[in-house]
């Protein structure tokens, strides 16, 4: 009688373990149906480099680097505005200038044909250009920081998660917004005396006169738009989410333990 009741207990316990195994396999199958990439990945050989980014994330990292380099290069080069003075071509950015007049012998003006930045921050021709310098520089620095982290994410596993990628996308949106604000502030400085001398003395805010916008201005604006729209959207799918992987691994470990315990119970 005692042996029979013991056998019934073992049988019930085995049925319970079998049902738990079925549940574990069902959960694993559901995770696979939702996203097969979330199943545990076999251990790789030592020294193998794995990325923390998805395929979309790799594209995002490349575009982030391209927009950051384009905006920063455009910010530094003095080719935002083209005009002429004393018969010589003149170009400006927000804090740099190419070709400028100086007084020579007999108090006559001569053009020095070289590029350089203004001697001090206060020497920048207008308050609008001073604000543009600060705002655009902050936006470029933010885009460069995100691009560096994105490139490192291509080489380091676990550096960028799904949530981290979205936060970096938000930072890119802010950086692009800052650069766009700088581009919007730039025309407010066209009424300064230094710019008017270069633009035929007929320029004003949002009126170029005889001057024209340069390629660097358009490049900065295009890079800012790409960072705000394309890079921010791609960042939502850039990082890998580790939580489902951890769940699947836990299920597989529990399934193995259930199988060992069931085998132990069924042994005579």
Keywords for this structure?
single chain, 268 residues, alpha+beta, five-stranded antiparallel sheet, 7 helices, 5 strands, 11% strand
Give a description of the structure.
The chain has 268 residues and is of the alpha+beta class. The protein contains seven helices and five strands; from the N terminus they run H-H-E-E-E-E-H-H-H-E-H-H. It has helices at residues 2-34, 55-76, 127-153, 162-185, 193-198, 215-235, 242-266, and strands at residues 81-85, 88-92, 96-103, 109-117, 212-213. It has a five-stranded antiparallel β-sheet. Helix 1 (2-34) packs antiparallel against helix 7, helix 3 (127-153) packs antiparallel against helix 4 (162-185) and helix 4 (162-185) runs antiparallel to helix 6. It starts with a helix and ends with a helix. Mean pLDDT is 80; it is low at 34-45 and 244-248. This is LHFPL tetraspan subfamily member 1 protein. Its main location: membrane. Keywords: Membrane, Transmembrane, Transmembrane helix.
Strand and helix layout:
Elements: H1 2-34, H2 55-76, E1 81-85, E2 88-92, E3 96-103, E4 109-117, H3 127-153, H4 162-185, H5 193-198, E5 212-213, H6 215-235, H7 242-266
Antiparallel strand pairs: 1-2, 1-5, 2-3, 3-4
Helix pairs in contact: 1-7, 2-3, 2-6, 3-4, 4-6
């Amino acid at each position: 009688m005692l042996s029979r009741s013991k056998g019934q207990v073992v049988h019930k316990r085995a049925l319970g373990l079998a049902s738990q195994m079925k549940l574990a396999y069902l959960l694993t199958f559901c995770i696979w149906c939702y996203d097969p990439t979330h199943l545990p990945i076999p251990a790789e050989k030592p020294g193998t480099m794995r990325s923390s980014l998805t395929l979309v994330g790799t594209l995002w990292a490349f575009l982030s680097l391209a927009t950051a380099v384009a905006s920063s290069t455009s910010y530094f080069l003095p080719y935002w505005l083209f005009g002429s003075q004393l018969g010589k071509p003149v170009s400006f950015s927000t804090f740099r200038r190419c070709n400028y007049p100086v007084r020579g012998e007999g108090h006559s003006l001569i053009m020095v044909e070289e590029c350089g930045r203004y001697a001090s921050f206060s020497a920048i021709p207008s308050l609008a250009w001073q604000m543009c310098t600060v705002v655009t520089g902050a936006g470029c620095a933010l885009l460069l920081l995100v691009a560096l982290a994105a490139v490192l994410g291509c080489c380091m596993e676990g550096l960028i998660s799904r949530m981290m990628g979205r936060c970096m996308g938000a930072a890119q949106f802010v950086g692009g917004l800052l650069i766009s604000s700088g581009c919007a502030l730039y025309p407010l400085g066209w009424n300064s005396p230094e710019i008017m001398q270069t633009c035929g003395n007929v320029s004003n805010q949002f009126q170029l006169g005889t001057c024209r916008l340069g390629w660097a201005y358009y490049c900065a604006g295009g890079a800012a738009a790409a960072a705000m729209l394309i890079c921010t959207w791609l960042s939502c799918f850039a990082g890998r989410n580790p939580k489902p992987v951890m769940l699947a691994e836990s299920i597989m470990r529990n399934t193995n333990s259930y199988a060992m315990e069931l085998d132990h119970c069924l042994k005579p």
